[in-house]
Automatic annotation (TrEMBL):
Keywords: Hydrolase, Membrane, Translocase, Transmembrane, Transmembrane helix. InterPro entries: ATPase_P-typ_cyto_dom_N, ATPase_P-typ_P_site, ATPase_P-typ_TM_dom_sf, ATPase_P-typ_transduc_dom_A_sf, ATPase_P-type_domA, HAD-like_sf, HAD_sf, P_typ_ATPase. Signal peptide: none annotated. One of its GO terms (molecular function) is ATP hydrolysis activity. GO terms for cellular component: membrane. It comes from Dorea formicigenerans. CDD domains: P-type_ATPase. Residues 121-217 form the P-type ATPase A domain. Residues 1-38 are annotated as: Disordered. This is HAD family hydrolase.
Length: 813
């Protein structure tokens, strides 16, 4: 099936057309599947299960997006105006713009190539039957009428009809309902749903664009593409404001200079261009995009796949981390440690019991780690024939088999024993305190119907299982404790067992546990998530409720998981993390996938997020100093009918050595600080004192210069040097605490600016100053430091007063 794009940008599902021909339909034997010839026939006719999701950006699209921007258009217009008036010297901003654009293109293409390779490794696969043989293929290689084997954990990749076997399916991703639906032969499986229990063979009835999930997928992808992190949203707001404001201000400055201040056409254009250049944060958005792209690459080399880059920032802001016991705290592998008969059961019949359990697990499919462990331990079968099988589900928490008229079940003690649980609780609790997961095996006095147990269960034995604690778990959770991140352990196992395991892993307050079956109302859940650390016997629906309750309490929540029962919670979490060894559904639902299923790399993901956000925040303050100064000085010039005192080449000189070059290097420095407050608020508050210092110093210099009869070149050169002094003061403050690289950046920037001023004065419009100008410059230079210091204190004081009035901790900024 070939897909052809009508337009360059995907906006609606109908932007995709399908080229395919009429094809014969087949109804193959479930055990044999399609023949090679039939597969090839469907393939030739275009009936493959090709995804209709929008493809990743092409190299051409990346180049176009980086080149064809609004601000690049502004720069082009400014460059043309300068060329028209013959002011070629003032085109010094163009090399910086071209260089920045090229960096963005190169880094995004590199990130694209790395992530494409990882996506190929993490692509969904399916077990298909062809020519009587099973094979694992990429889901896009499936064709119409293929026989596919679906079992617990698999996501249905195309609409299908069950032809043999029986499964329980969750269609919540499509319908919003979390009920598990039993699908017997003849029932339809909807693409996008996932199997929670059982195993079946199904014939694909609708593939690719015809499947139910296709339109939903396109809509979801389009929505995802529009989602942005707080940082990018803040930058968008800033860029939008500046983009709108600079046009009327630029036109006003030109009209004022040419018609009212008697400037020549050339000088009016040059003055207007200088003001507009200063207001454009030309490298800020690019720097953020490049930094995020580089972070994606860094994480990719650590075998961490990001489905979207916003998750880097979100994970860095997380203050509550919800984890499962199995696969996160413990190893995925589970083993049976012992089988102990109950007091009512004759210990001499242990061989018989062992054989019965072997027959029991032999009828089950290996669709979860518990059943795999049971199959590995109980192998001495007597080959009894099962008349009915009820697979395990996360809702009922038991499995059942009928041998003739006799029924047997195994599962969680509370769900199997129910009202009799208290009788056996002392024994079960004793094993749970030792960190074992306890299952109860017993005979059931009624026929199994696949729903919740209603009859009485006579317990015959306790089966003790355990997962070894991951070696790196204590160190990982110690890191999160140091960083002030609360850990909530949410598990379907016995709360006492989970608590013991959590203690062993070093999770803070692991002794605070609760049985989730006792939480009946939303209020109960809200109170519990605020009080407890460990939650046992949690249902899939409750996991979702826990995440929502934590978010309602103002927490930024990350959810980790690897099972089908984690999908709903993963969808609702602020940031979702899945283990690649887990179910297809969990990997597809998560924003972050740990390809080696190693939770120990989570600290490095968090640190990468903090590094990129804090450093972009640091660099953004540098950019905003120039923007605030230029915007306010432009307004000052308009109000007082003055010509803008600086030239474009001077603005370029200041931007290069106090903003662009140091900002780029600082954006890639290590930074482990906890992210506090809102991005735009933090950036503006850091930049405001320096921006105000700049505008007051340069405006005063211009006013005094005119009063004392200084020439325009004197005033513009003195203003440039004043901007440099304030720029290096704010750069010094931002570089603290200094290390060797930050020290080199600061010193190198000072040397670079002085070098250009001395050796390339004509290029950057730096002229010698008169004696009067030097005297004024010295006075204002001395005044800049105390002015900057007191303005910083003033902004800080206003911030604290604002926080006090609104009863918020100052740290939120």
């Amino acid at each position: 099936m070939a897909l052809r794009k009508k337009h360059e940008v995907l906006e609606e599902p109908q932007d995709y057309e399908i080229e395919r021909r009429e094809t014969p339909r087949y109804n193959p034997d479930p055990e044999a599947g399609l023949s090679a010839a039939q597969v090839e026939q469907h393939r030739d006719d275009g009936w493959r299960n090709v995804s209709v999701a929008p493809p990743a950006q092409t190299t051409k699209e990346i180049i176009r997006e980086n080149v064809c921007t609004y601000f690049n258009l502004i720069f082009l217009v400014l460059a043309i105006l300068l060329c028209l008036v013959g002011s070629f010297r003032d085109l010094t901003f163009l090399p910086v713009i071209i260089f920045n654009t090229l960096i963005g293109i190169v880094q995004e293409i590199r990130a694209k190539n790395v992530l494409e390779k990882l996506n190929m490794l993490n692509a969904p696969h399916a077990s298909v039957v062809r020519d009587g043989k099973k094979s694992l293929v990429d889901s896009e290689e499936l064709v119409l009428d293929d026989i596919v084997i679906f079992k617990a954990g698999n996501q249905i990749c195309a609409d299908a009809i069950v032809v043999s076997g029986e499964v329980r399916v969750n269609e919540s991703l499509l319908t919003g309902e979390s009920d598990e639906i039993t699908k017997a032969p003849g029932a339809e499986l909807m693409s996008g749903s996932f199997v929670v229990a059982g195993e079946c063979r199904a014939r694909l009835d609708k593939v690719g664009v015809d499947s139910y999930i296709s339109k939903l997928t396109l809509e979801a992808k389009a929505m995802k593409k529009g989602e942005q992190s707080e940082m990018i949203r803040s930058l968008d707001k800033l860029v939008k404001f500046v983009g709108i404001a600079l046009i009327p201000i630029g036109i006003t400055l030109f009209v004022q200079g040419f018609f009212f201040n008697d400037q020549s056409f050339r000088n009016s254009i040059v003055s207007m261009v200088a003001a507009v250049l200063g207001m454009i944060p030309e490298g800020l958005y690019l720097l953020a995009s490049v930094a995020l792209a580089v972070s994606s690459m860094r994480l990719a080399h650590k075998k961490v796949l990001l489905h979207d880059m916003k998750s880097i920032e979100t994970l860095a802001r997380v203050n509550v981390l919800c984890v499962d016991k199995t696969g996160t705290i413990t190893e995925n592998s589970m083993s049976v440690k012992d089988m102990i008969p109950t007091k009512e059961y004759d210990a001499e019949k242990m061989p018989e019991l062992n054989g019965l359990l072997s027959d029991f697990v032999g009828t089950m499919s290996s669709d979860n780690s518990t059943m795999e462990a049971l199959k590995d331990y109980f192998k001495k079968k007597t080959e009894q024939s099962a008349s009915k099988v009820v697979p395990f589900t996360s809702v009922t928490k038991y499995s059942g088999v009928m041998f003739g008229e006799k029924s047997y079940v195994i599962g969680a003690p509370e769900f199997v024993l129910r009202e009799d649980y208290d009788t056996y609780k002392p024994d079960i609790s004793e094993y749970a305190r030792k960190g074992y997961r306890v299952l109860v095996f017993g005979s059931y006095d009624a026929a199994l119907d696949g729903g919740k147990l209603t009859g009485k269960v006579l317990p015959m034995a306790y089966v003790l299982l355990a997962n070894p604690i991951r070696k790196e778990a204590p160190e990982t959770f110690a890191y999160f404790a140091e960083q002030g991140v609360e850990v909530k352990v949410i598990s379907g196992d016995n709360p006492l067992t989970v608590s013991e395991v959590a203690k062993e892993a070093g999770i803070v307050n692991a002794e605070e546990y609760v049985d989730a079956t006792t939480l009946q109302t939303d209020e109960d859940i809200a109170n519990a998530v605020a009080k407890y650390t460990v939650f046992g016997r949690v249902t899939p629906g409750q996991k979702r409720q826990f995440v929502q309750a934590l978010k309602d309490q103002g927490k930024t929540v990350a959810m980790t998981g690897d099972g089908v029962n984690d999908v709903l919670a993963l969808k609702d979490a602020d940031c979702s993390v899945a283990m690649a060894s887990g179910s297809d559904a969990a990997c597809q639902a998560a924003q972050v996938v740990l390809l080696e299923s190693n939770f120990a790399c989570m600290p490095s993901v968090v640190l990468e997020g903090r590094r990129v956000v804090n450093n972009i925040q640091r660099s953004a303050s540098l950019f905003l100093v120039k923007n605030i100064f230029s915007f306010l000085l432009s307004l000052f010039s308009v109000v007082f009918m003055m010509s803008y005192p600086l030239q474009p080449s001077q603005i370029s000189l200041i931007s290069m050595f106090t903003i662009g070059i140091p900002g780029f290097f600082l954006a890639f420095q290590p930074n482990k600080d906890v992210i506090k407050g809102h991005f735009l608020t933090n950036v503006v508050l850091k930049a405001l004192p320096a921006g105000l210092t700049d505008v007051l110093a340069v405006a005063a210099m211009a006013v005094f210069g005119q009063t004392f009869g200084l020439g325009e070149t004197d005033i513009s050169t003195a203003g440039t040097m004043l901007l440099a002094i304030v720029g290096f003061m704010i750069l010094f403050k931002i570089c603290e605490p200094f290390n060797w690289l930050r020290g080199c950046v600061w010193v190198g920037s000072v040397i670079g600016l002085l070098g250009c001023s001395i050796f390339l004065p004509k290029l950057f419009a730096i002229t010698g100053m008169s004696t009067k100008c030097i005297m004024l410059f010295v006075v204002f230079s001395i005044a800049t430091e105390p002015l900057f210091r007191y303005l910083t204190k003033l902004v800080s004081g206003v911030r604290k007063l604002h926080m006090k009035i609104h009863k918020k901790p100052v740290e939120e900024f």
